[in-house]
Amino acid sequence: MELLAPAGNWEAFLAAMANGADAVYLGGQSFSARHYAENFNKERIDDALNYAHLRNKKVYVTVNTLIADHEFASALDYIRDLYKMGVDAVIVQDIGLTHALRKLIPDLRLHASTQMTVHNSAGAILLREEGVKRVVLAREMSRDELAKICCEVKDIEFEVFVHGALCYSYSGQCLFSSLVGGRSGNRGRCAQPCRLAYQLFSRTEDTPVASEGRHLLSPADLCLIEQLGDLQRIGIHSLKIEGRMKRAEYVAVVTRAYREVLDSMAVNPGSTVSPELRKRLERIFNRNFTAGYFLMDRAGYLSPKRPNNRGIYIGRVVEQSQDFTTRIKLTEELRVGDGLEIWVKKGQGPAFTVKDILLQGKRVSQAESGDIVNLKIEGRAGAGDRVFKTYDSELMENAQASIEAASRSKLPLDILVSLQEGEPLSLLISDGEGRQVKVKSTGLLQKAEKHPLTFEVLQEKMERLGNTPFYLRHLSLSGEENLMIPFSELNETRRRGCDAILQLLRGGPLLSEDDELAYRHIKDKYLYIPGSPSRQGDSHTQAQGKSLPLLSVTVSGIAEAYSALEAGADKVYLQLAALGKGVVPRKGDLKRLLQAATTANREVVPALSRIHHSSDKPQPDFLAEEGVGAIMVGNLGDLRAFLGRDIGIYTDYSLNVFNSYSLRFLLDLGVKGVCLSPELSWKQLQSFGNIDKVEMLVHGELLLMISRHCILGSVMGRKDAVCSGYCRQDSFFLRDEKGFEFPVLSDRDCRFYLFNSRTLCMIEDLEKFLLLGPGSLRIEAYRYNERQVSRIVGIYRKALQEIKFGQRPELAEYKKQLMDSSFSPFTRGHYYRGVL
């Protein structure tokens, strides 16, 4: 199995290389999902490729963000440059970019980011058909689910995260940072709102539900170092360490630990992980460790008491004097330079670096387990307070030493010099592993009069490799003696030889001018998107008389679906995930609803669950029998599963269609309609051209997160219970420290849904939507009852009809009426502000 380590900067890259990584993934200055890491410019990427390829290691570059239309051409050129530089793969999220790259640079190796939320076999098959060579699977997959996908899908590699921070939401399905703070995780700028404090409330109680801590969305850190044997037997190709935002020493320690276990497994497949090694991982950084969904570790999944590094427990406070001298009894060793934090019973405890240790009245550099030491600290602590080491100076020093050694590391060359009078001097340069080059001087060797090329002279000249990544390991001579050639020519031959062996070891495609011309021609053709019609002038005048977009609504129950149809909805998405107290529609109920819609010349579309694991409850098997003519899918797997069937397909906004190229890809597959990403602004939407098959969100509570971990079960239920059932008994919400309330629901597979604290309302901007010309405008009514659905749909229907026939609707008044049916204040989302 490949060990894949992160690199947020050059030092972290060296740390990974020095400590056993087979490959490193890193980001450039743009289009990277870790925008706030230091990252790499093109020159540094080239340095990384040189360093790695000379050592038979690989470099993958992340371009794993959604790409806007205006960025598309520069993104393609950037990736083309990466290809010419010889990167081993590019990691991508955007499905439109993926499709374009396959057409434009077919030889480029593509890896599908975990941001694509691939969690089933059909999703992997779709990407394999798009030429993707590796899929980074969702972190939410269990051991059995991973085994199933590896068994069912061949000719593609699978990569899984094995260590580091977890996201509470499925990656690629989180809009929390985006809608709350304008910083999109899909664009590499996540503000990590899941690490903040929240309290859980029910609608029927005034007090928060009791919990172990307030960081209810903050996962513990993943650690699968004890499950590497299982992963190998399953058939996983690559083991990925999270951490491009972590410091280089973290990369060094974690990479070394996993390398040691893999090396031990190679010798003894039954070897176990030592307690010392696991403690090393805890000492460098941890929020507690969990095996996550691999072992379905529900009890240990969260770290609710603190969202940051807790370090390791090293003792308790015995007493503290008035001058803050604190006596601590140790359970682990302590050194000068270590960082400590004391967990006090209330408030924030002291955190400090140890500068002096007093042991039995003497100043010492370190103390051992069982010792009672005196430390001078800043801040109050009480007897019995626990002490944690959050910075281990010895561990850090060892890690730094490995990085420094890597920075000085050079590779050996063996050089054979052949000398023959009247012939060019010949250098055969090899790396000792069978790779070699041969270069010759331009001039000819002659009899020496004063300065013959002796072994000592050649040794001195060949050792001059200072600015190269090489050193001379062995020199040998063949041929005649007492010959000479100008030293300048000898040095030039050596330089050409080093360049040649460097190029050989470095690798990369050899591209001709014709290749470049072909690329530019195809790119220019592919980037052409028919322009949209003029949208200048009075919006009301231009909007009247236009064909109205359909009015669609997403509901959670049969009764709400009837209400939507009666109020004027053209299309009703009936979700089948059974959110909250909802149930999956029964066979006859769905058939009658479909007949009612057909009679009214309307459409009812069952909406499949956005997440569809192989272990989930099966989707209803009576859809075809009921006369269902179309379905809505929310993931790549369900999209692939229904392609080619005699059924229409709509795609939800969970597919993150952020540019016209992703839209074009889906429509070319035969999709009937596409809901665009709610992160798009008006300006971006205007670049799409013809969008008559596009759906846009205009009203409702947007879904911020989907998680496989249910807060209701972890906070209120038994630790060993799969499902507490509380979601069927009451309504719940999370409240943050600013007082904002985020409604929550769970579905029939115990997945957890977090909704925005504000309701999207674009009633005052309807004329703008009509000018854009979308095929459908959509209301999100997951949590609305029959009366609310009827009122909201009726108001939007009335306003659209008035615009259609040239009347000026009282949109401000309609907005006030909509407030009566709203759970929360209104927002206009990203239509005006966009996202970073």
UniProtKB/TrEMBL annotation:
InterPro entries: Pept_U32_collagenase, Peptidase_U32, RNA/ubiquinone_mod_enzymes. Residues 387-503 form the Peptidase U32 collagenase domain. Pfam families: DUF3656, Peptidase_U32. This is Peptidase U32. It comes from Syntrophomonas wolfei subsp. wolfei (strain DSM 2245B / Goettingen).
